[in-house]
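user: Please supply your own:

assistant:
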Amino acid sequence: MKKIDHIGIAVKDMTASNALFEKLLGVASYKEEEVESEGVLTSFFKSDTSKIELLAATEEDSVIAKFIKKRGEGIHHIAFEVENIQEEIQRLQKEGFVVLNEIPKKGADNKLVVFLHPKTTNGVLIELCQSI
């Protein structure tokens, strides 16, 4: 793993949350993107080398909608940038981690992504991401 790529935060209202994080970080969102396959709208903020991804549900049965209903708004995942996502999947599975989607899928911000089950990562949803 190279570095933390971003922290994902589940939000109910993208417009209000964009305004809040713009005030908090002192910068505007540099990109909004809908990931239709996941039923989510994303918005990215960058401050120096740190990135924040806001995630709002676009469908009532999406993963983000279910997360917010169960836990409320807040940190959803931590994403790590990797050089080779296939090699990391194999390495982590050998170490005993459970990969939720063994076949990487296209995520936001031009990345291939997979997630590790929180039950194997001390309750934290971990995303591995590789630039396409």
The first strand starts at residue 3 and ends at 11. The mean pLDDT is 96. Strands lie at 3-11, 31-35, 40-47, 50-57, 74-81, 105-107, 111-116, 126-131.
